[in-house]
Write a structure and sequence with these properties.
elongated, about 70 residues, 2 helices, single chain, about 15% strand, alpha+beta
């Protein structure tokens, strides 16, 4: 169980670093077409549909190629 937690932690660390790197390159993570933003007065609702789909596909591909024992 400990090895799995370390592996998941490393994946999260790499993913976080990739997100920060892409944001520095002005890649619009979280502001893709298909992400919905509603503003009314001082209330804002953000629904990142496209970002969630891309992240889901990336994780599916990652876990398909990396098998956890």
């Amino acid at each position: 169980m400990g090895k799995v937690l370390i592996f998941v932690g490393l994946i999260l660390l790499v993913a976080g670093g990739a997100v920060l790197f892409l944001q520095k390159l002005h890649f619009p993570i979280g502001r893709l077409p298909g992400d919905l933003l509603f503003k009314r007065g001082n209330m804002t609702i953000y629904l990142p549909f496209t970002t969630c789909i891309l992240l889901s596909v990336a994780l599916i591909l990652l876990f398909r190629f990396v098998k956890i024992p």
